[in-house]
Amino acid sequence: MNLLSVGASYRTAGVGTLERLTIAGPDIPAVLHKLVAQPYIGEAVVLSTCNRVEVYAAVSGFHGGLGDVCNVLAEQSGIGANELAGHLYVHYDEAAVRHSFRVSSGLDSMVVGEAQILGQLRDAYHAATEADSAGRLLHELMQQALRVGKRAHAETGIDRAGQSVVSAALDVAADAFGGDLSGRPGLVIGAGAMGALSVATLTRTGVGPLRITNRGAERAARLAEAYGATAVEFADLDAALRDADVVVCATASTEPVLTAARLAGRERPLVVLDLAVPRDVAPDVAGLPNVTVVDIDGLATSRRTMPAAAETAAVEQIVATEVENFLGWLRGADIAPTVAALRTRADEVVTAELRKLSARRPEFSEEQRADISRTLHRVVQQLLHSPTVRVRQLAAEPGGDQYAALLRELFDLDVPHATQADAVPEIGGQA
């Protein structure tokens, strides 16, 4: 099986396309089952966030696997295959490993260095584990990607140089109030992961008094209690909006929560940060007087999302080292079936010869036959020991896949999935 990563992000698609591609949490298990039911896909993990939707898959062939992933994404989103193709990036084998490590370390995030992606990737991995769609290859990839992300944040200043998406949005919002949001009344709509991050960031920034509303009142109440904020009923949203200067929308609603009718008639400035995908703010809100809307598209072009070059270079070096380590493991893992097939072939040869000996020398006792069998097996195992240990070492080095191929050729070994019938050169697009 080979690694394949297919996705769309804020780099390749606008919010409108990402809204259609986004896979809600409750729908992910069904999508995972649909993916692994495809003929070329053996394992799958789906990562769906506010600014990216990606499928990581273990596939038996590049073209077949890519077609399977695209078909599922097209069916799920309702976007035609031709239109969808223009927004997708594709990474294969080594490039897929590198991409996953860059994603986990925050290098591919809209706000470079933000740490929220680690939690999102962990949730995606757990969902795949629960759905039993992650096998040996993706288990290893996800575990290593999470470790690389933690290492990047622990060993470099990437998260000090970068910010969360919420922090970047608040920087943009501050411009509307002379650069300072302290003491400005705030409202957070939504109490999920992004809502909680928004509350924490607003509190740290000095926005207040702060109110929280959510369709599930209990979750809003818990979040408000944790940060000294006030929970308001979702039915009282209009009243809460009238008192706010800064509003953060981060719900999982499939329809706009804030419309022009709801926000019309503002007499003082209001900044609305729409961090949801699909968008919480209807397009017609942007034309209202005294209302400023900042969304994912606006953040993507903000220079506030760019950290210092030194931090990104340090993380890129960590990623490069860890990619090579993973490829070494992968090459070693790939040769294991070939080594096992070689040992099986040797055992078959010994067994066949013992059977012939038994037919020629029926006078041998059972004890004598057992002694001969043990001796022959020991001799074969000793002969094979050094070559198989050495070939494992060689296979872990760059170009090591050649050694497995040579073993299969020399000993005429039939190893399932040892060769890739649908091989293509390495592909890696910028996401």
CATH class of the largest domain: Alpha Beta
Distance between the termini: 23 Å
Helix content: 40-55%
Q: Would you count the extended β strands for me?
A: 10
Secondary-structure-derived class: alpha/beta
The average pLDDT value, as a whole number, equals 86
Strand content: 5-15%
Strand order of the largest sheet: 7-6-5-8-9-10
The geometry reads as elongated
Assigned CATH architecture of the largest domain? 2-Layer Sandwich
**What is the overall number of helices?**
17
Q: What is the N-to-C order of secondary-structure elements (H for helix, E for strand)?
A: EHHEEHHEHHHHHEHEHEHEHEEHHHH
- The radius of gyration is 28 Å
CATH superfamily of the largest domain: Glutamyl-tRNA reductase, N-terminal domain
User: How would a textbook summarize the main sheet?
Assistant: 6 strands, parallel
Count of separate structural domains: 3
Runs with pLDDT <50, length 5+?
Answer: 418-431
CATH topology of the largest domain: Beta Polymerase, domain 2
Note down, in words, how this protein is organized.
- With 431 residues, this protein is of the alpha/beta class.
- The protein has three domains: 2-162 and 314-319, Beta Polymerase, domain 2, CATH 3.30.460; 165-305, NAD(P)-binding Rossmann-like Domain (Rossmann fold, 3-Layer(aba) Sandwich); 326-410, no CATH class.
- The protein contains 17 helices and ten strands.
- A hairpin with a 3-residue loop joins strand 2 (41-48) and strand 3 (52-59).
- It starts with a strand and ends in a 21-residue tail after the last helix.
